[in-house]
Each structure stands twice: as structure tokens, then as C-alpha cells.
Prior knowledge:
This protein is of the alpha/beta class. It has helices at 17-21, 35-45, 53-60, 74-84, 98-111, 125-137, 154-158, 167-170, 174-189, 282-294, 304-323; strands spanning 2-6, 26-31, 48-50, 64-67, 88-90, 115-116, 141-149, 196-202, 213-219, 225-231, 242-249, 252-257, 260-264, 271-274, 327-328. Strands 14-13-12-11-7-10-9-8-15 form a nine-stranded mixed beta sheet. Strands 3-2-1-4-5-6 form a six-stranded parallel beta sheet, with helices on both faces.
Amino acid sequence: MKIALLEISHWHFPLYIEDLLSSGAEIIAISDKNEKVRNKYGDKFNCKTYTDWRHLVNETKPDAIFAFGEHHEMLEIGTSLISEGIPFSIEKPGGICLSDVIELNKLAKQKNVLVSVPLVQRFGPLKSLIDNLIKEEGAFFTSTSWRFNAGPPQRYSNIFCDWMLNSEKSGGGCLINLAPHFIDLALNLMPHKADLIFAQTDSLLHRTEIEDTATICISSKKGGRALIETGYNFPDSLSKREYSFSLVSKNHYVQSNADGVCIVRPGKVIEYIEIDLDSDPLYGVYVESFFETLHGNKELKAGLSDLEDAMKIVEVAYASAASNQSIAI
């Protein structure tokens, strides 16, 4: 299978490299506007390099593509690949706003083109544990909370991704960039359909154009809520980030700790389960899953419809933060 990699000066791309190299797929070409990035990875993959992804697609005709790129470019990239009938993976958020994702999703369905999205929390051991608690123990989660605080925004400038600090190119800061993963998890656990959003954002810590802190409350009038906090609040240090959560069910309280999770059940000894909660290795799991889907051995696990659901919350959250009011959806 011939694979191309588009616009790879993206901070997630290094998380894909080793698994792409060991996948057995033939990486035939890469594209990027940055010469240093092109040369570095062209040598690593021993493949042709292009300054313009359009030329790459026209000249190489790959069997499938991993598309990265700046957020404001994703709509054009996705639209072009769908028009060519090329199956592809595209990084979230799939554009700078909800309408971009809606357009891509609609076109992909019309053209019957496979589009995968690395909502990688779906591929991890926590999701498996939650699914098992629901299936085997009847867990019914009514309330969840998620915290994901990454390093300072300046790190993007240090790795050729300074466009991330430009809201017109990125669509925003930590909310659009980090929250979709946890919105996706939260929506799948909500006991009733979400119908009310309240959010707040600010850039007080780093005083950049984009927000560095965001808090979203997702709730339903019928009951159930999720609280999601994301930020660029973690120091530049050897520890990459803070990721923590708690999930509430009548007979289960699932809480993260340093080694994984603990599960508290009424009248029972607390269960401690070692789990690697680092999301970085999940991109390798995702690469393998995408290839299995391409070969017809596995159903698509996360696609544009799932991303659209998450981006609906993102868009309403920004509107709520701007108005300082709850917004019904």
C-alpha cells in the first residue's frame, strides 16, 4: 500500500513516525512548506518530498494519506482528497470551525470516501476499562470531569508551529486544540443528550492571542453533566502534562492516580489498576487501526461524524465564553 504524508511540520507527527516505519506500508512521498522539515523526514522515510501537497497528490496518486497541516488549511486538503476518492486520516479539529467539519463530513458521505480521525482516547486502555465496567457491572455514569493541562504555548513556536498562536490560522487555543478528545469521551458517557453549555476562557497566564485556559460544563436538563478543563498551564518541564479525571456512577467512582486508576465500589475494598494514561503511545495504536480499516479488517473507530459532534460543543463553548452566558443546544 502506497502512503503519502501531508504537511508534516505538525507537533503530532513525531508520534506517528516509528509506527509508520514499522507498518510495512510504502511511504512514497511527504509534503511540507518548511525545507528543514522536508529534508529531515525525506531522508528518514527515503521518499520524495514536495513543497506543495497539491503537487504531491496529483503526481503520486497514493492509495491512502495521513493529512496534518495548519487548521485553516484542513478544509481545502480534506475536500481535495475526497474529490480524488483517496481514503485518509485527518488530524482534529479538521478545520478552524464547525462548518468546515460539517462540509467535509457531508462531502465524504456523498462520495463514499473513508475518513478517519485520531480521537485517540478511544483507542486507549481507559476506554476499554470504562466499556468493561458498563458491560460487565452495569456502570451508569451520570457525572464526569476531565483535566488536561499541557505545556506553555511558546512550545509551538519552538517546533515550527507558530501558526498555532494565530487564532485566524488555528481557530483558537487550548479549547479547540485539546478539548475535542475529552468532549468525545464525555458525550459517549452522558446519560442523556447534552442540551446546555456554559464555558469560560482566558489568556491571563501567557497573554497570547489564543486562550490558554478553558473550562466547559456540558449538561442535560434530564440529568447528567461533564466538566472539562484544558489549558496550556503546565510548566515547560520533564513532566509533559497533567491528565486527571473522575467518573461517577451509583456503584462506581473511578478516579485517576499516579499509576493509573482506582475504582471505589460501595462496601468493597478499593481496586487499584495500573494503566498508562499517557496519550502519546495511542497514536501508534491509531496508525495500526487505520491500516487495518484500510485493509477491511476493522470497522472505522472514529470518523468525521464523531468529530462533528465534538466540534458542535467546541463552537457553542466559544460562543458561551464570549457572551458569559449558558447556551442551549
